[in-house]
């Protein structure tokens, strides 16, 4: 082993340029790996991390205002209960700070017990009488530029000192959420109002922690049976909270996580290809070592040690750089979702594991081709075993310097195939990245992505439907009812119920996964997300508890693929919801004819006393959140672009080094820097053109279907690169090829001509 290390170290020192090139490739792969997997890990575990730190309750029950003693008497009798706490909430509160204000504040008045949120800056409010103080959710503090110690004007309570910032993972953060939460102490408010001893605020929210969280349904069922007299009772479990968070950005985060998996695969391909390419460069040295009697095991040991010595520092630098590059955008995404980033220790352990895997992969990838080469005849290795042979053909010299450069690269067939594969894989990932960016934009702006066939909404009563349909350009109009409900068979599991009086496919037609469409009042189509959560299929019974006194039952006749609410939706007709006592309300939706004049339609609606509202996409119009996601995509795109550039520079530099004699002969015959760039440009072009074909095929046949399946099995994602994006990729690769030819040409011009001529002789 000491011989292998000494020989490997001497080899690295003897060829610093080649060593630096190999290390750069490994660092680029480490950069992609560091960005992709740290982002994927942070996003996929953010909710669980925040929920654990905040002590998210097993069940959150909301109801009308009640005396806390009455509620506590019922709650304490529940089975499987470990702890409970209560709070009083008021919505529509005005919050003010210098330069900012909103009327969408939510005041939470808490007494003792668990809070259900985590303090991430400052401290929690004290459970005693004292000066007015408040804990503010982190999203509001970040958006308004507030700090601990500042004053926040809270409705009629006036200015209150901010003592802490909180994260409650039961909802997304302001401004992604439309409400901003602040928390105050009940004791402090009672003392401020001069309340008599024993007086308390009413409560309308109960936080319940189960002794055995796996049996949360028992606790919910008992709570429902004991809830007689509670108005507007609603339950939400921890799983339901996670589903609701996913409705805000779940598909976006899932796409990023799936992309991270694909990018990690790319990094593995790069590491293996780089290690094997380095061994192929050394075939002549391996042949010489075998010719003078070196054992195959010694040759393999030298190359394994060489790969490890190069990979250890290079992979560490790339991984750390990737983790640092992705850390900022990832933290901002998690903050928007009220989730927490992993700690430094966790990230360090993850990077250490990735580093061990990367170094081990390079070591094995260096040893295997060296072992295969060491078993070949030394004479074959000394001749250059992978150079294309054969008799020269007539016309072979035609095409000028560009054609000569192409032949120089293609002569090494195995290496040529390896470079094309690496560059094509990296370019395929870039195409996937462009397709993802387009999909995010469509999810934001295009309602058709969600299967919606209506383009406008308005507020009018049902009797005006005929008048609306008479407006030129309107194809159909109907009231769209949408209510929140929970499953009566899986208590606490939330879902969205969408009801149309007639055929809903005129306005919303998500593709069928199985079954058929709704034809009568007692039937339902359910999303794949809901079907998976509740084990539903055509023929099953869906029992829901809307915000009404009674349950509603439907026979499932179809399962549809829809992005809305993570697929936890049911399409029904309103009859049974009305019979259950549900209060139905919703806008009138308008499906327009092709080429309809929206201004004329808006004028017609104004004549009826209404206005037209455009339909939004899946993620709404929160520009800041989408900007953060775009930042993440840009970071990964930059890393992959570096990989493409390195692959091209490496291929050209290696070709130029191996063909020093031919290049020197051309220079001695008068070839200048421009001629060398044409030579190298032809070499780059013969790699880029097949790489583009590989990239297009890989993205269309493998990467896009894989990411769509990983990100959302509950929906049909229209993910795929367009012709314009393919053209953009081809142009970008052409620019990179020119840059690679320019960089390599400058290095060749600086090399003495005589050195190459001596090698040729």
TrEMBL record:
Signal peptide: none annotated. Its main location: membrane. It comes from the Bacteria. It is a multi-pass membrane protein. The keyword Membrane applies. Residues 635-752 form the ABC3 transporter permease C-terminal domain. InterPro entries: ABC3_permease_C (IPR003838), Macrolide_Exporter_MacB (IPR050250). It is found in: Cell membrane. Pfam families: FtsX. Belongs to the ABC-4 integral membrane protein family. This is FtsX-like permease family protein.
């Amino acid at each position: 082993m000491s011989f292998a290390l000494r020989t490997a170290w001497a080899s690295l020192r003897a060829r610093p340029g080649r060593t630096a090139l190999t290390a750069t490739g490994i660092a680029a792969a480490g950069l992609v790996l560091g960005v992709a997997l740290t982002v994927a890990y942070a996003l996929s575990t953010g909710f669980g991390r925040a929920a654990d730190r905040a002590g998210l309750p097993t069940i959150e029950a909301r109801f009308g205002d009640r005396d806390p003693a009455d509620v506590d008497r019922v709650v304490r009798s529940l089975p499987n209960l470990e702890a409970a706490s209560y709070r009083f909430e008021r919505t529509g509160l005005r919050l003010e700070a210098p330069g900012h204000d909103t009327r969408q504040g939510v005041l939470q008045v808490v007494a003792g017990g668990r809070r259900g949120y985590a303090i991430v800056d400052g401290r929690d409010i004290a459970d005693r009488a004292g000066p007015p103080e408040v804990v503010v959710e982190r999203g509001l503090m970040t958006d308004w530029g507030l700090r601990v110690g500042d004053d926040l004007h809270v409705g009629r309570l006036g200015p209150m000192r901010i003592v802490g910032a909180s994260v409650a993972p039961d909802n997304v953060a302001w401004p992604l959420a439309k409400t901003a939460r602040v928390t105050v102490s009940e004791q402090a408010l009672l003392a401020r109002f001069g309340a008599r001893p024993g007086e308390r605020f009413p409560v309308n929210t109960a936080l319940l922690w189960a002794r055995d969280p796996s049996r949360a349904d028992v606790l919910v069922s008992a709570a429902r049976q004991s809830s007689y007299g509670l108005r507007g009772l609603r339950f939400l479990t921890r799983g339901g909270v996670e589903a609701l968070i996913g409705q805000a950005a779940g598909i976006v985060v899932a796409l990023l996580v799936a992309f991270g998996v694909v990018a990690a695969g790319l990094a593995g391909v790069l590491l293996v290809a780089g290690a094997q390419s380095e061994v192929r460069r050394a075939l002549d040295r391996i042949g010489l070592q075998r010719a003078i009697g070196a054992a195959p095991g010694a040759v393999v040991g030298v190359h394994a040690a060489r790969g490890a010595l190069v990979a250890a520092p290079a992979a560490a630098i790339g991984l750390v750089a990737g983790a640092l590059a992705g850390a900022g955008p990832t933290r901002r995404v998690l903050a928007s979702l009220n989730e927490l980033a992993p700690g430094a220790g966790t990230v360090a352990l993850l990077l250490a594991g990735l580093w061990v895997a990367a170094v081990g992969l390079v070591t094995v990838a260096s040893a295997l081709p060296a072992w295969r080469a060491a078993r070949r005849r030394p004479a074959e290795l000394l001749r250059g075993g992978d150079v294309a042979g054969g008799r020269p053909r007539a016309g072979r010299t035609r095409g000028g310097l560009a054609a000569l450069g192409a032949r120089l690269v293609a002569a090494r067939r195995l290496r040529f195939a390896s470079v094309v594969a690496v560059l094509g894989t990296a370019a395929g990932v870039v195409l996937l990245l462009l397709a993802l960016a387009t999909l995010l934009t469509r999810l934001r702006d295009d309602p058709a992505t969600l299967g919606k066939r209506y383009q406008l909404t308005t507020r009018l009563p049902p009797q005006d439907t005929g008048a609306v349909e008479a407006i030129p350009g309107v194809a159909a109009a109907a009231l769209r009812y949408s209510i929140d409900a929970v499953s009566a068979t899986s208590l606490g599991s939330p879902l969205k119920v969408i009801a149309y009086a007639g055929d809903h496919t005129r306005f919303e037609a998500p593709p069928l996964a199985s079954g058929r469409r709704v034809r009568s009042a007692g039937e339902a189509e359910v999303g794949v997300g809901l079907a998976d959560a509740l084990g539903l299929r055509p023929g099953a019974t869906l029992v829901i508890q809307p915000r009404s006194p009674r349950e509603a039952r439907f026979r499932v006749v179809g399962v549809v693929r829809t992005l809305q609410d993570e697929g936890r939706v049911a399409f029904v007709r309103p009859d049974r919801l009305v019979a259950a006592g549900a209060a139905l309300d919703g806008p009138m939706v308008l499906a327009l004819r092709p080429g309809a004049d929206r201004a004329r339609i808006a004028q017609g609606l104004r004549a009826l006393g209404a206005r037209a509202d455009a339909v939004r996409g899946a993620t709404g119009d929160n520009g800041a959140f989408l900007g953060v996601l775009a930042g993440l995509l840009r970071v990964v795109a930059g890393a992959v672009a570096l990989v493409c550039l390195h692959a091209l520079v490496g291929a050209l530099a290696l070709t130029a080094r191996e063909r020093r004699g031919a290049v020197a002969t051309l220079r001695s015959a008068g070839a200048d820097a421009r001629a060398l760039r044409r030579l190298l440009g032809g070499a780059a072009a013969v790699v880029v053109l097949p790489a583009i074909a590989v990239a297009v095929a890989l993205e269309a046949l493998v990467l896009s279907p894989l990411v769509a399946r990983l990100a959302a099995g509950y929906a049909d994602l229209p993910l795929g690169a367009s012709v314009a994006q393919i053209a953009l990729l081809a142009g970008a690769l052409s620019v990179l090829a020119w840059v690679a030819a320019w960089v390599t040409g400058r290095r060749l011009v600086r090399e003495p001509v005589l050195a190459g001529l001596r090698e040729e002789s």
